[in-house]
Amino acid sequence: MSDLPHCPACQSTYTYQDGLLYVCPECAHEWSEDEQSNDSKTITDANGNPLSDGDSVTVIKDLKVKGSSLVVKVGTKVKNIRLVDGDHDIDCRIDGIGPMKLKSEFVKKA
To answer: Record's family (predicted)?
Structure first.
């Protein structure tokens, strides 16, 4: 089995290497290893530490919960986060409040 990456444009598995470029025969997309590594966006906390699924984080600022009078207090520990795409890039469950989405800029890795 080949260790070549899938095409970032169409996810085809039939890619091949042509010199320094990877080529997809199905959609004719060409890319280099540098472009492929730049496409993967890493989500970091307020201190610049990379986050991953399953991490525990601590809230660093009081956060008002939209649509209610609840507030997530500073120092609230959130376990087992899940990273998602979008403006709010952390999906989690906070005890006493329920499921929420948080921005990574308001948390630090625990």
So the answer is: Belongs to the YjdM family.
